[in-house]
Hints:
Helices cover 44% and strands 20% of the residues. The protein starts with a strand and ends with a helix. The protein is α/β, with parallel strands linked by helices. It contains seven helices and nine strands, in the order βαβββαββαβαβααβα. α1 (15-25) packs across α7 (168-184) and α5 runs antiparallel to α6. The strands form two sheets. It has a five-stranded parallel sheet with strand order 2-7-1-8-9, sandwiched between helices. A four-stranded mixed sheet has the order 4-3-6-5. Bound molecules: guanosine-5'-monophosphate. Residues 11, 15, 34, 38, 69, 71, 73, 78-80, 98-100, 102-103 line the site of guanosine-5'-monophosphate.
Amino acid sequence: MARVFVITGPSGVGKGTLIRALLARVPALELAVSATTRQPRQGESDGVSYHFLSHEEFDARVRAGEFVEWAQYSGNRYGTLRSELDARLARGVPVVLEIEVQGARQIRETMPDAVQVFIAPPSSQALRARLEGRGTDAPAQVETRLLTADAELAAQCEFTHVVVNDRLERAVEELVAVVRTELATVK
Ligand code: 5GP
């Protein structure tokens, strides 16, 4: 069975950047495209950044059992569709999920063989600076995300692998090493 890699950690910690670098370094991996009810940001397109769903459609798909995990986050819902995983795993393709902590906990229950990596900021101040600096969220959204981040940071002890995103190249090396080691381990 192909492996599932869960990359989690607070919003703004740099999960997206690290995952882009990981996919470039380990081309066998494929990233699952999540579904969300939040509005697309500038430059995001449907089916690539996310599957953008209305609240009604998201509800209907939850009821139909189409999600392997989903969570309420910062006023919206986010989830991984079973269809993003099944075909890839059947073909033996390892899949990366970029999800927040509640979703990672659900995957831990339902897919105990999934490899979970928590990406941590070097400090809370660094996380604030990143969230404010990237300018993708309104100030009120940044504050909500930072409040959630406090709880998420407290959960990092639950994770086998913790990668501190202090310097990008160093963090990428560490993440690549975790993934390569797990891929080489037969489960
Ligand atoms: P953003 O709005 O910044 O794109 O994402 C907000 C948070 O939702 C991030 O921490 C992101 O990793 C998380 N997220 C994205 N997709 C999923 C998903 O499919 N499931 C869960 N549980 N969280 C997700």
